[in-house]
Amino acid sequence: MGSKLGNYVDLRSVLKYIEDRRHEDGGYCFVSLLNETNINDTYYAVKIYDLLDIEIPEKEKTVEFLYNSLKPQQAVVAIAMAIEGLAILGAKDLAKEGLSLVFEKYKPIEGKFAVGLGGSEEFGTATPLEATYWVLRAFKAIDYKVSSEERRKIKGFIESFRKGEGYGVTQATTTMTYQAIFSLNALGYPVPKTRHFHRCEVYGGFTEVPYSLPPYLEPTFYAVRGLRLINEKPRYIEPHIRFIRALQNPNGGFRRSLEMGISNFQNTYRALKALDDLLSF
Questions:
Q1: Cα dihedral: 67, 71, 77, 83 (round 10)
Q2: One-character DSSP codes across 205-273
Q3: For the chain, what are the domain ranges?
Q4: What is the pLDDT of residues 11-51, one digit of tens each?
Q5: The domain made up of 3-278 is a member of CATH 1.10.645.10
């Protein structure tokens, strides 16, 4: 059970934190008192159990919850998360049924990269690049191959966000740079080398833009993942590990910064995954 991680963080309290927030419908909600289960929290619960190589409790209920969440009114990011979650749980056939919903909102041939956009992981309203990232994650999870024309159109769209050695809307950011290079890699293109991640590295964590403070968990997660993708290592592995360990709250979950923050499933997964990656460099 994630024995490597168990030497660095309290995994028992992580699991209790997740399990206490599982609801009867098979979904999860990080605010345990609310009976409003959602795709985002359920997706990250699935990812945490998968990372720790533990069978998710009452898996059939969670499969049913995610499958029933595949609805036209959902944002494309949420639909993509549900598809990937179903694939992780071994329900690829059900996951593939969500493709028609994706293509109602994501039409690269027509130059429409997530119609309506809707909700986001990061910014309240999704950027089109973020939507592309999640759609390509979903495609990868169910082994869906895009056509050569779709591939070319999506690549051109991604490159429209290039800002120097990184990617962003007004300037290169760690989040969007990782989303871009992951997406290019998922499409089968060579991963472009970039110094952006190293420019955002501080002695214990990473920042969203170069030469700024403080570090936060999300850019740390994306930078560590990005460096693995381009086959480079962080400079300060041990300080990064200490930074992440310090983010675990008494309830077992993780917050986003040293200064403040409540636990949520997203940050808890990111902390565990980034730590797992750092321990394998």
A1: 20
A2: SB-SSTT-S--BHHHHHHHHHHHHHTT---S-HHHHHHHHHTTB-TTS-B-S-SS----BHHHHHHHHH
A3: 3-278
A4: 999 999 999 999 999 999 998 777 789 999 999 999 999 99
A5: no
